[in-house]
Amino acid sequence: GVLAREREWRDLPEQIAEAERRAQGDQEAVGAGERALSEWRIQVANLETEIKRLADARRGRAAEHDAAERARDRARQTVEWRESLVANLAREVAIVQAKLVELSAEADRLEEENQTASAAAREAERAASALATDERVRALAEARAAVAALERQRTSQLTVVTTLQTAHQRLSEEITAKETRGAQFLTMQEGERAALAEAHARAQIIATQTEQLESAIAPAEAELTLIAETQSSLDVQLAQERGQLRHKESVLSQAQFAHQRIQDQMAHLRRDIERDLGLVELEQDALQADQPPLPLEELVQALPPVTTLPEGIEGEIRRLRGQLQRLGAVNPEATKEFAAEKGRYDFLQAQMADLERADASLRAVVAELDQVMQREFRRTFQAIASIFPERFKALFGGGSARLELTEPHDVVNTGIDITARPPGKRAQSLALLSGGARALTAAALIFSILEISPTPFCVLDEVDAMLDEANVRRFRDMLQRLAQHTQFIIITHNRGTIEAANTIYGVSMGPDSTSQVISLRLQSPEHEATDGEIVEGAYSAAGSA
What we know:
Blueprint: H1 2-129, H2 133-277, E1 280-281, E2 301-302, H3 313-327, H4 334-396, E3 400-405, E4 416-421, E5 428-429, H5 435-452, E6 457-461, H6 469-482, E7 487-491, H7 495-498, E8 503-509, E9 515-521, E10 534-539
Parallel strand pairs: 1-2, 6-7, 7-10, 8-10
Antiparallel strand pairs: 3-4, 4-5, 8-9
Helix pairs in contact: 1-2, 4-5, 5-6
């Protein structure tokens, strides 16, 4: 009850103070352990720093040793590469010299041929001067032709000699350049060998320094291991003390939470009293930090202290609070709000009545439309079903067919079955017919619909693709008869259907192997179709429409 909570609230500060004293002692013990641990950690950090310094020095020496090894390897590879270059240059010089000898021999041979040709030309001129006039003219012409041929040969040979001389000069320059590069490579090779020897010596020195550093690191690592073990034991002790501290902090937190909960309950009780009784003056306690209300005397009522509560007082309080909540707040504008809501309610009722009347009217219209649609559907279906067998016989040249409703008593949701019997076959449904028979049956149904309800035009796409010549002829005759009232636009490749067309549009290949769109009207200009005509569209890659 309230008195028990009051006693707990008064005893709670002493318990909190005791818990805080114990927590303070534990915190001092933990602080001493942490200070000792900090000293050990400082020593560990110093040793780790020294070990790190030595390790860095060792890694630096190792890196220098590796760098020296890599430099030695690079120098060795460079020496080998330069030696291979010198050998390649020597082989190239030998090849160029051999080619130069061949070019010199070829130039000498061409020079001898040129001299021989010049001597032959002079001999021919002397022989021509010794002949008679006619013979001299003819011999002169032949000699001139021979001289011209020899001159052309000489010019060609001079061109070849010039080219060979140019190549000889270029090869001589290449030989000189490569000999210079070979000498440079030899000089650089000597330098690389000296650098290789120096790198090897440095690697030996670095290896010795590395061994010295490793011997200095070993004692420091042993001391670090001992300190680490000591630190581990201190960590275990510190963990135990921290566990005790956490437990006591938990106890303290629970006590503080209980204190706060009791304070919240007391504040909640005060708010309930003020809400129920208005401005009142409660009994103040030294431990309470609440500010007392102002002494307004007539407005503030002082409540007497209560030591015991009557039996059933809490139930009575709950009952009275429930009644007060059900009453709610006093609203002086309730009359105006009721009038506004009443007006809106009346308006919505009027709108609802209009909507209900509109709904009833629409339902009556829909019912009437359903009756009209069912009546018109039955009439149209009966008319189409009566002429469909005739159109079927006309297209097939015999046989029989009929249309049936799947649900005669439910015209709105019914379907239509087509049963056909082509000539020489048994009656079966449309799905079991062949492709051509299905196409012809569908054409019969379309023609029946057009006779009952004609349309301005009708488009048929490859309807006759699967028909033979006899069926195409009957199909064409039916089109010509129906074209008196409906214009047919047919896309087809069938020659028999195209013959019945008045106008043809198609694509043909011209002489330049390109597609050309053509149109052809198959009736005289003065003839005009009064009721309908057949327009064909045929597509051909070979040129025939």
